[in-house]
Amino acid sequence: MENSYDMIVIGGGPAGMSAAIYAMRSGLSMLMLEKTGIYGGQVLNTYEVDNYPGLPGISGFDLCMKMKEHVDKMGVLVQTGTVQKIIDQGNLKLVCTEKANYVTKTVVIASGAKHAKLGVTGEEEYAGMGVSYCATCDGAFFKGLSVAVVGGGDVAVEDAIFLARTCEKVYLIHRRDELRAARSLQEALFACDNVELVWDSTVSEIGGDDDMVQYVRLKNVKSGDETKLSVNGVFVAVGIIPETEAYKGLIELDEKGYIVAKEDCATSMEGVFAAGDLRTKALRQIVTAAADGANAVTSAEKYLASLR
Ligand SMILES: Cc1cc2nc3c(=O)[nH]c(=O)nc-3n(C[C@H](O)[C@H](O)[C@H](O)COP(=O)(O)OP(=O)(O)OC[C@H]3O[C@@H](n4cnc5c(N)ncnc54)[C@H](O)[C@@H]3O)c2cc1C
User: Fold this and answer.
1) 16 CB near ligand 1 (under 6 Å)
2) 110 CB under 6 A from ligand 1?
3) Which of 28, 174, 212, 272 is disulfide-compatible with 23, CB 3.0–4.6 A?
4) CB of residue 286 inside a 6 A radius of ligand 1
């Protein structure tokens, strides 16, 4: 049957690429569907990756290119398309994109996550006019200017350190009085003399003129006091939202929208596996996403054997 496979992998990030490599090595007929047409997922937006074994200090882009080279070398078939739904037909699944439908025996969902938003006045209005969700993509536009980074985890701290290299002043705005980021990152941040931490504060408004952000309004969560901070840019790094909208009501999700799956990556739908940032797990990183890709294919192979 045309467009019919043993496995379809949804997403071309680290989890999807790892799954594709394992599937090809296992001799499965497979297709990878990636909505952007570019491999790498969130890693493409990472300036430097310093915790992937064997490749210390590699840029996110270079790591993606290395993974892509490996995927290409294995002869993985890739098509551009956004998966909109999966239809369960028992031993066969129909995977539907905006362009075509594909028949498959197993699915590895590895569609990762996207940036969470602040949800405050001005955020939508100034998106691309000073509001950004990617410091490595947009940081260069703010050379010599003042910016705010919002968040307290690894990504927020990495963004602040990255921006401190070129911006005149970086304010890191965090709603608590301590950071969640890794100790080594915090040490690097505290060594930047142009970074100022604004503790116990949330952004209540982003404002500016017709062209560009000019300020953020802050609210101190302890005192309730409001202040206005002059900045030219706002980098939002307040977490991620799993890309699981398409599977609501079809596959079990937790209250935050993550696909419920353990290390074997099996989901509530037989023959469908979840790998990477979108599944319930303690640590969302490149190395754990890649590990999931391998585990998902191993589980899928056992499932395929049970069909014979
Ligand atoms: C700024 C930043 C810095 C980071 N730094 C590090 C770091 O230093 N070290 C580290 O280990 N981790 C880091 N991370 C986390 C790491 O990038 C993620 O854990 C990892 O990328 C997760 O991989 P994934 O394959 O699960 O998902 P993703 O990387 O999110 O990839 C998912 C892919 O699926 C595609 N997709 C989405 N929806 C669909 C659909 N419906 N149809 C088809 N395709 C779809 C997307 O386009 C994307 O290519 C960082 C993340 C960010 C944002």
Assistant:
1) yes
2) yes
3) 28
4) yes
CA-14 nearest atom, ligand 1 = 25
Q: Is the CB of 182 under 6 A from ligand 1?
A: no
Q: Is the CB of 155 under 6 A from ligand 1?
A: yes
- Domains, the chain, in order of start with CATH, read 4-114+240-307 (3.50.50.60), 131-236 (3.50.50.60)
| Ligand 1 mutation pick, 48, 71, 111, max ligand atoms within 8 A of CB | 111
Q: Which atom of ligand 1 is nearest to the CA of 243?
A: 38
Q: Which residues belong to the active site?
A: 134, 137-138
Residue nearest to atom 22 of ligand 1 (CA): 277
Ligand 1 mean position to 230 CA, how many Å? Answer: 32
Sign of CA dihedral 278, 280, 284, 287: negative
